[in-house]
Write a structure and sequence with these properties.
The complex is a heterodimer. By secondary structure, chain A is an alpha/beta fold. Chain A has a single domain, classed as TIM Barrel (Alpha-Beta Barrel). Chain A contains 12 helices and 12 strands. The N terminus of chain A is likely disordered. By secondary structure, chain B is α+β, with helices and mostly antiparallel strands. About 5% of the residues of chain B have low confidence. The chains are: A alpha/beta, B alpha+beta. At the A-B interface, helix 3, helix 4 and helix 12 of A face helix 3 and helix 6 of B.
Amino acid sequence: MTEKQDRLMTRKKFIRISSAGLLGVGLLGKSTALLGKSLKNQVEKNPERRMLGRTGIKVTALGYGASHVTEPSLIKRALDLGINFIDTRGDYSRGENEIMLGKVIKGIRRKIIIQSKIRIRTKAKGEALYAPEMRKRLRLKMETSLNQSLKDLRTEYIDIMLIHGIQTPDIINHETIKEFLMEAKKTGKIRACGFSSHANQVELVRDANRDNFYDVIMVPYNHKGSYVHSRRGHYNEWDQSSLEKEFKRAEKNGVGIVAMKTCSGGPYSPDGVSRPTYRNALEWISSHSYISTMAVAMGNFKQIKENIQVMF
Amino acid sequence: MIRLSNVYKKYDVKYFFSFAMLVYLVCCLGQNSLAEDLKERIPSKGKLADFRITEKPVTYYRDTLWEYINGGAVGYLAYGFKEAITFTAAHHESGLEFVVDIYDMGKQIHAYGIYSLERSQEGVAVEWGCDGLLYGNALYFWQDRYYVKIMAYDIAQETDKLLSKIAGSISRKLPDVEASPKQLAVFPENGRIKDSDRYIKTDVLGQDYFHDGFRMEYDRKEQRYTIFLIEGTTREETALNLNKYRAYLNEMSKPGNELTGLGEQAYTGKDSFYGTVILSRKNRFIIGVFGLPDVAAARNIIQIMLGKLEKIDKRPYP
């Protein structure tokens, strides 16, 4: 079956699942044992996997945003249930998140796709960003961060390394950063590179589409076209149609799009009548062919149980 | 003639406004004192003579912490974060710069909790706070309800000494109380891995029904395992939650056995990360030994811990 046919299947599946939204809600109310049995049965089926752009990496439609998870057995259970994409970040909890993840993936590293991040914090702008001292600092920061992640994750390579939390194009277009990422790919320390952003994503994706350097882009995307962070109260909105236009262009360029803040737009009802659910919100995102996977933060098993159905 | 009921009404309104004003003033004073309180934790020039504060201290609150530490704020908020103050100090002689963060976590257990999650097992113990570590270019400790992080921009020969100097000057400005969680005393001493103790406020073992858990890692006779102590609200709720967790374990592996003579309720099970799991409940506490295949040894550990529970729980059981 071709990749395109795969995608069509997904769309068909989406319509089917959407119309059966109420049935899904009903099923969620069943006993843990029953649901457990169905989960176990599903593991034996193959979860849907998609190409992450031109990277050659295949990822499950549902990914695990594991940066804030502190319980290793929860991540292991998610992997047992078929999720193969984990999003982490070295500087969360002073690196403890990657150390924990390193223990979880021991023995199964080759089956798991790990996306980590380098955060570049600088107040420098314009010419100051290109001063020799600044170039040296940037390089040192990236080298230290990548090597620390490799050590903490107990791995020889990271599948996708993102430059994290970009707000303006000057950082992603910086020669020193691009050179470093190219070298890291050549030496095999990373397989693909990209960037993530919490705001201003239309402009950033548009800019990235121009030179097509980055393999992967991770930005907020949900049915609402905005998000209010559940705990932090931070609000961000974007022009949905402009973003989707840029996503389609990125897809043509072979760029893998990872959606984040997927549940921060709230639960979704496909027909506007049935009870809105987070699972439907994820199904909505997943129904778009330009989305390769979603980094969904799941702090407990109840959330995993609700969301996992998206992959099957 | 003035009617008595009108007087009451009149006085009621007066009392109401006076009371409302009093509540408002107390709230305002409370807020101000909290903000002032944190600013006062910054060492005065005399106490930190070799340094100068290069940037004006910035205070962050629950709704603005993300501006400072981005996604990292999520964990802090879950642990009851109230407010934080951050400033940069530069050492006169060496020019080395240090970023100092003081987090008010509201409660001692929360300060310990966030410290325990961020602590590196590769750190070197420092003399400051209830517990503190020096790791790489950072020194961090917790004391009373405060969590303090000091990070050096660059590593130089004198970095450790200067980190310690700043830490000392802040520690002396914080309440000096012994606040180690009493629950840690229930755990066995033998085989404890240094600095492996953690306090998990919610979603203990990844389950939304478990809260207030303590975990400790062990390495004994070349066997690594983890012990959990989970506190429930009532005996009934805890019993129900243990059954839910048993069902969770049984979902993906061969069902375990019921154990007798171990607390009020005890089971064995399998977890794909930890391996063998032995769980026991007594009143509103659950003790679990994870990853120790020797069931007899795990039973023995739990038995000893069950005996110590009364020391930490003086509440009458419902």
